[in-house]
Please model this.
Amino acid sequence: MKFNTSLKGQKLVIIQSFQPHPEKSLLNILFAAETAKDLGAKKVILAAPYLAFLRQDKRFHPGEAITSKIMAKLLNHSIDKIITIDPHLHRYKSLNEIFSIPTKRLTANGAIADYIRRNFKNPVIIGPDEESYQWARKIAEKIKAEYTIFKKTRLSATEVKEKMVKEVTLKDKSVIIVDDMISTGNTIIKAAQKAKSSGAKNIAAIAVHGLFVEGISKLKKAGINRVITTNTIDNPTSKIDVASLIADGLKKL
Ligand code: R5P
Model:
């Protein structure tokens, strides 16, 4: 770790999306931030288009680390401010529950809505589960499209049924499944199967963060015609640019 320029009295912005190696990225941020302060930097800001570890917000299995809390504790110590896009907040209602430093939460909803407006005709927006409601509804409202969310109902130990929370007609429609992230892709694939069995003509998936831990081809093989993400994590699917969102957010800090 080495800086090639003087940082004395400067404000430093570290940009890091934590992929594909979140643990290594975290360590690199800490090394850079501590070194910058040691060299006289006035402030160190972390711009994390994708902020990793947030999904591990409880001990799901005995003995597991709650990595979100550990990550926050380390960053609280070394960073002065964090700016991020659509952080995964489920059990935490706000980033302030784990961060003691100021945080700024941006959303890619506007950029996604603009992309849909330019590239799709009369789509129906679907949130694949109850958590995705916040994205699906807001995006659908922006583009004045019909929307619904799916809800999983467990019928028995082995049988799960996807149900529409609000009935909308999918027959012969262009359907866009919207979520905050695609990790294994299983959530999107399940929703796509339900949309297909309801008669959808074609199916696209749009997410803010494309992690694709099991590859992108899995989604294509499952019959999803288009997979699109923002470039919070750089991928072949990154068609929605959020650089100006981060740049504007930094200006207003
Ligand atoms: C869930 O809470 C998230 O919003 C996503 O739906 C989920 O993380 C996607 O994960 P996967 O692609 O592995 O199903």
